[in-house]
Amino acid sequence: MSIQTATKTLANGVEMPWVGLGVYKAEAGNEVERAVKSALEAGYRSIDTASFYGNEHSVGKAIAESGVPADDIFLTTKVWNDEQGFNETLEAFERSREKLGVDVIDLYLIHWPVPGKYKETWGALEKLYEDGKVRAIGVSNFTDQHLEELMKIAKVKPMVNQVEFHPRLFQKDLLEYCQTHDIQLEAWRPLGQGDLLDADPVQRIAEKHGKKPAQVLIRWSMENNVITIPKSVTPERIKSNAEVFDFALDAEDLQAIDGLNEDRRYGYHPDNFPYS
Ligand SMILES: NC(=O)c1ccc[n+]([C@@H]2O[C@H](COP(=O)([O-])OP(=O)(O)OC[C@H]3O[C@@H](n4cnc5c(N)ncnc54)[C@H](OP(=O)(O)O)[C@@H]3O)[C@@H](O)[C@H]2O)c1
Question: Is position 53 annotated as part of the catalytic site?
Answer without folding.
Answer: yes
